[in-house]
UniProtKB/TrEMBL annotation:
Its EC number is 2.7.7.65. InterPro entries: Diguanylate_Cyclase, GGDEF_dom, Nucleotide_cyclase, Rev_trsase/Diguanyl_cyclase. GO terms for cellular component: plasma membrane. This is diguanylate cyclase. One of its GO terms (biological process) is cell adhesion involved in single-species biofilm formation. It comes from Photobacterium aquimaris. Residues 65-109 form a coiled coil. It comes from the Bacteria. It holds the Pfam family GGDEF. GO terms for molecular function: diguanylate cyclase activity.
Length: 425
């Protein structure tokens, strides 16, 4: 190869390299722009391109970059909205979870409250049935203490109970499941408290005390409950029970008092003719069943009652009858019973009344007559107490003869008294 040819070859290589560089640099700029756009650098500014085709391509790429940039911005805004919506959804879900939890809690509370309410209603129904049963038991004339204790123990089997009723013959405590020692405390007595209900602490429990009052606000009894602290429903039930009991107890006390008045002589306070007829019939029936159990009968007549009334007035006659009844009662045994039959007539029934027992009582009454006894008025006026008496025992006489024999003996004694005194009747 000649030197000229070598020069030509070198020039050809140089021209090719310059041409490649002239053409390749715009392409490199386009590629750099594309790479920048692909990396999110949309603000890149390159040099002006030499060829229109490259310029158009660059313009197209820049337009596409702006479109993509707008779309990316729009996507970012949409994404932000979606994130906000997602957060709202999460918050709503949390609120829904809280709402569900609260709803479940309220449902459980309402269910429990309803269950408790149903249980209370069932207890009330049971207690009302018990109260109706209690009222029925009281109406059939059962022992009121036994009925009450049975009823309260059925209502509250785990509680301790004590009751005292202020009747004529019963002031002792009736107890069930209660420490009797606590009843010895004077502070437990109803007269030491003003309120109808009072509560005393007792070893982790309480002594709930309820007064039983009549319509005149008088205390006729007390009920004590050894139990934990009372709820309102318990207090209402027991209060209703107490009111029902007080009404029944007052009625029984009233009936008892009316029955007592019906068989009691209003002047002397001893048994009257009605009581005598009833008791005599009872003794006759008993004697018919058990003939070995003899009873005795004394007939007594006050001497001088008419003269006392005529001379000093009926007040003196009343005083004479009262004093006579006292002397007769003092002379008798606890098993003997004195009656005023009416006017100046008295009678005594001896439950154990064989002939010997009647003779002993006769002797005691004779001793009373031997001592001078007087009936007096506040004014100081007085008259001597004397009475005639006669007796008979079914040990020696039939039942039909008993009253007649006693009366004959009494009138014989009365005639003897007036004859000795020289008094004309």
């Amino acid at each position: 190869i000649s030197l000229f040819g070598l020069v030509i070859i070198l020039l050809a290589f140089f021209s090719a390299g310059m041409t490649y560089r002239w053409i390749a640099r715009p392409l490199e700029g386009l590629m750099a722009t594309v790479r920048a756009y692909s990396q999110g650098e949309y603000q890149r500014y390159g040099r002006d391109l030499r060829f229109a085709e490259f310029f158009m391509v660059d313009k197209l790429i820049r337009k596409m970059a702006k479109t993509i940039q707008a779309q990316v911005s729009d996507l970012a805004a949409k994404n932000a909205e979606l994130n906000a919506a997602y957060k709202e959804k999460e918050q709503a879900n949390l609120q829904l979870i809280d709402f569900n939890d609260e709803l479940e809690r309220k449902v459980e509370e309402k269910t429990l409250a309803l269950r408790c309410s149903l249980m209370r209603e069932e207890n009330r129904r049971s207690m009302l049935q018990s109260l109706l049963s209690f009222s029925h038991d009281l109406q059939v004339d059962k022992n009121i203490i036994e009925v009450v204790m049975t009823q309260v123990v059925a209502l509250y089997p785990t509680a301790g109970w004590a009751m005292k009723a202020y009747t004529h013959n019963n002031e002792a405590w009736a107890c069930e499941n209660i420490d009797k020692n606590c009843l010895e405390n004077n502070n437990i007595q109803p007269e030491t408290h003003y309120s109808d209900y009072y509560c005393l602490p007792k070893s982790g429990e309480y002594l709930h005390c309820f007064k039983i009052k009549n319509s005149h606000n008088e205390v006729v009894g007390v009920i004590i409950m050894q139990y934990e602290k009372l709820q309102r429903d318990d207090f209402e039930v027991i209060s209703l029970f107490i009111r029902q009991l007080s009404t029944e107890l007052e009625g029984r006390l009233l009936n008892s008092e009316l029955a007592r008045i019906a068989v009691t002589d209003s002047l002397t306070g001893i048994a009257n003719r009605k009581a005598f007829d009833h008791d005599l019939e009872q003794h006759i029936q008993l004697y018919n069943r058990y003939p070995e159990r003899s009873f005795g009968l004394f007939m007594i007549d006050v001497n001088g009652l008419k003269r006392a009334n005529d001379n000093y007035g009926h007040s003196m006659g009343d005083a004479l009858l009262i004093q006579t009844s006292k002397l007769l009662v003092q002379a008798c045994r606890a098993t003997d019973k004195v009656y005023r039959l009416g006017g100046d007539e008295f009678a005594i029934i001896l439950e154990v009344g064989d002939e010997d027992s009647c003779a002993i009582l006769w002797q005691r009454l004779e001793t009373v007559r031997e001592h001078t006894n007087y009936a007096s008025l506040p004014s100081g006026q007085c008259v001597e107490v004397h009475f005639a008496m006669g007796y008979a025992s079914c040990e020696h006489y039939s039942i039909d003869e008993l009253c007649l024999i006693a009366d004959k003996s009494m009138y014989k004694d009365k005639r003897s008294f007036y004859k000795q005194r020289g008094i004309q009747r």
